[in-house]
Amino acid sequence: MRTVSTQLESYVAGSWFRGTDGGEPVLDAVTGDEVTRVSSHGLDFAALVTHARQVGGPAVRRLTFHERATLLKELALHLGGHKDDFYAVSLRTGATRRDSMVDIDGGIGTLFSYASKGKRELPNDTVVLDGAPEPLGKGGTFLGQHLYTSRTGVAVQINAFNFPVWGMLEKLAPAFLAGLPSIVKPGSQTAYLTEAVVRQIIASDILPAGSLQLVCGSAGTLLDELGEQDSVAFTGSAHTAELLRNHPSVLHRGVRLGVEADSLNCSILGPDVTTQDEEFDLFVKGVVTEMTVKAGQKCTAIRRVIVPEPIADAVVDAISARLGRITVGDPADQSVRMGALASLGQRDEVRKAIEALRTSAEIVYGDPAHVDVVGADAERGAFLSPVLLRARPGAAEPHEVEPFGPVSTVLIYGPVHEAIELAARGRGSLVASLVTHDPQVAREVARGLAPWHGRLLILDRDDAAESTGHGSPLPMLVHGGPGRAGGGEELGGTRAVLHHMQRTAVQGSPDMLTAITGRWTTGSRRVLDGVHPFRKSLAELRIGDTVETASRTVTRDDIDHFAEFTGDTFYAHTDPEAAAANPFFGGIVAHGYLVVSLAAGLFVEPNPGPVLANFGVDNLRFLTPVKAGDTIRVSLTVKQLTPRSSADYGEVRWDATVTNQDDEQVATYDVLTLVAKTATRTATEG
Q1: Catalytic residue among 260, 290, 402, 651
Q2: Cα dist from 87 to 91, 103, 259, 576, whole Å
Q3: pLDDT at 680
Q4: 169 and 115 in contact (C-beta within 8 Å)?
Q5: Start and end of every Aldehyde dehydrogenase domain (predicted)?
Q6: Cβ–Cβ contacts within 10 Å for residue 496, how many?
Q7: What does the pLDDT average to over 121-143?
């Protein structure tokens, strides 16, 4: 087993710092032996925050989103090469190999996911535009544009003990992409694993200096140092969250606080499911998995098991039978399926919660005072039997008490609306699941649960093989929940990145907005230099470069040929009488896609050159019908340039505007092309 230093160190202002008072002991969850000591005594919190603001922040903000994404991918690859070391340390937290995969591989996978999203969904720039420009005057000379920019503060994360790796990396990735340096304060009980990962990150020298700092031990006066540009993301108890909400920095200095707190998540078995259905087994397996993975120490674990009254006994029997096959003990033993809780203190807290639940429920499986343990001492280690309770009708405690361990309570419902009402009594949760094969049940329950939950899993035989399960937060989906769950929101793809940034409405002329945003705005200056933009490489193209085409008259023969050739014989293109009766067209009109095709023929430069491919069209709108005899022409303007850091080409977004002989807009859309970064000579160029 990998050793841990005798006292954990914090990483502050580019140096490792050891607390000056000897620290508090941290015990091995399995053996009860001292693993290390932890303290932040003597740490200069002002220097910590100043370093993040003055060194880390500017270094990250100098990078584009694509450059930040590239570093996240490099970091994920680096950490992946050291997973075995992290796994060895993770054993001391009581985690089995499967538990460690959820934490360690899950965290690294989140880095990969955000690296990918940063490249695919964010520009190779430092500003993100939010929506289209808003016209603010009739003449088109005064517009508004919403945009996101990086704030100049610090992202502080205060994490719980249960996910020492994932908890850090899932917060770090979007904050880093958003241009913010992070200060990480892990839960002390498992901080030695977080420290091990941070040491590898710092040693890799992948992230810019100052972009990641670590506090092991108390947060001390950290929050006192924060102000209007800073944020705190907290995962932990509702009690601590309340203290943070009332901190002067939050109340009076504008510090943004995101909270993920207690969550009495539920899983509902649909009334359509019988004991013979696949969904019955899926439900039972899901409940047992959520009770035992990480020994139930997951903010997304199933605490309330809501089942139809007619098969409640069968559900209890099936869950109990499956729990009976769970071996508890030393997570290093391959036969063990559930390890220890994180600490003896944590076990005491769970036992207290069980006693509170017993006020209105009876234990139907397990014994909180005794468990058979494989390969370890049941009392020196923080071991606890899985415990299943069955609540009496009208029970209040299952909706109020969260046992943060391998404990769930079965509740009974009659009509479907009672299941929804029971779920809502949790006053807001991170996740709920519904196991049903009836679409109408799914519709009714999902709509009833949605206001109370951050995520809903609808599970049946059709999606089970690919389902990631009830308790797995995913980088691309929102993680958080209303009410009791804290009201915060993390992950959710690029939503999490934008959450860290400042949205601002900028007003000005089209030329000013183009200059500020780096994206051509309708009405701003076009550049006509006599060189077709398709002859320019990415390095030569500039925002506003334009080609204005010759005209083409659309004939009835064009329309008839297109209809016959494509098979699109919609009456507006082929039946004069029916088309004349159409109040919008008033006669035969050209196909919209014919107009777009003819427009391409007008603006394309046919010879080989820097333009490599057309890979799409965005925002296509047909505005004025084109009739036989109408004449069309095109203005094609460079709207946005996005070099790809990993390729010798980049993306060019072109603004295409098709107008008729009366200067009316016929169609508008964006053309997307791949363009070589540098020009290459071709045979046709001599």
Answers
A1: 260
A2: 7, 10, 28, 74
A3: 60
A4: no
A5: 24-449
A6: 27
A7: 92
408: left (phi over 0), alpha (psi -120 to 50) or beta: beta
Contact 20, 143 (CB under 8 A): no
Residue recorded with tokens 């200067």: 663
Q: Outline where DSSP puts E strands in 358-414.
A: 361-365, 373-374, 387-391, 407-413
| Sign of the torsion formed by the C-alpha atoms of 307, 312, 318 and 321 | positive
Answer yes or no: are the C-beta atoms of 459 and 268 closer than 8 Å: no
In this structure, the number of other CB atoms found within 10 A of the CB of residue 278 comes to 14
DSSP state of 526: -
**In angstroms, rounded to a whole number, what is the distance separating the alpha carbons of residues 675 and 317?**
64
Cα–Cα distance for residue pair 479/456, rounded to 1 Å: 11
Q: What is the pLDDT of residues 493-549, one digit of tens each?
A: 999 999 999 999 999 999 999 999 999 999 999 999 888 999 999 999 999 999 999
Which residues lie closer than 8 Å to 332 by C-beta, 6 or more apart?
A: 1, 30, 91, 375
**How much is the pLDDT for 374?**
93
- 236/408 Cα distance (integer angstroms): 20
Residue 684 is predicted with a pLDDT of 36
Per the structure block, which two tokens stand in for 114? 């955000």
pLDDT for 290-304, tens place per residue? 999 999 999 999 999
Share of the chain above pLDDT 70, in %: 98
| Alpha helices in 493-640, H assignment, sequence order | 494-499, 510-517, 556-566, 571-574, 576-581, 592-603
Distance, CA of 111 to CA of 170 (rounded, Å): 7
Taken as a whole, the chain contains a residue count of 686
- Contact between 437 and 384 (Cβ < 8 Å): no
Over the range 13-48, which residues count as b (16 or more CB within 10 Å of their CB) and which as e? beeebbbeeebeebbbbbebeebbbbbbeebebeeb
Residue type, 23: G
* Maximum Cα–Cα distance across the chain: 92
**Is 299 among the catalytic positions?**
yes
Task: Report residue 366's pLDDT band, with 50, 70 and 90 as the boundaries.
Answer: very high
Give the Cα separation of 321 and 379 in Å (integer).
Answer: 25
Of 195, 225, 290, 299, catalytic: 299
Cα dihedral 175→177→180→184 (10° resolution): 40
Main-chain dihedrals φ then ψ at residue 356, nearest 5 degrees? -65, -40
Q: Hey, what are 4's tokens?
A: 């841990």
What is the secondary structure of 455-521 as a DSSP string? EEEEE-TTTTTT---TT---TTSEE--SGGG-S--EESTHHHHHHTSEEEEEEE-HHHHHHHHSS--
Question: Tens digit of pLDDT for each residue in 419-468?
Answer: 999 999 999 999 999 999 999 999 999 999 999 999 999 999 999 999 99
List of residues 6+ apart from 681 with CB closer than 8 A: none
DSSP 427: S
Q: How far is CA 423 from CA 229, 306, 364, 436, in A?
A: 37, 8, 21, 16
Q: Residues 162, 107: contact at Cβ < 8 Å?
A: no
* Cα atoms found within 13 Å of the Cα of residue 208, Cβ hemisphere only: 24
Query: Is 456 within 8 Å of 431 (Cβ atoms)?
Result: yes
- The model's pLDDT over 393-420, given as tens digits with 9 standing for 90+, comes to 999 999 999 999 999 999 999 999 999 9
Count CA within 13 A, CB hemisphere, residue 87: 15
The candidate with the shortest Cα–Cα distance to 602, out of 562, 547, 565, 673, is 547
pLDDT tens digit sequence for 544-574: 999 999 999 999 999 999 999 999 999 999 9
Residue 266 annotated in active site: no
d(CA 611, CA 70): 25
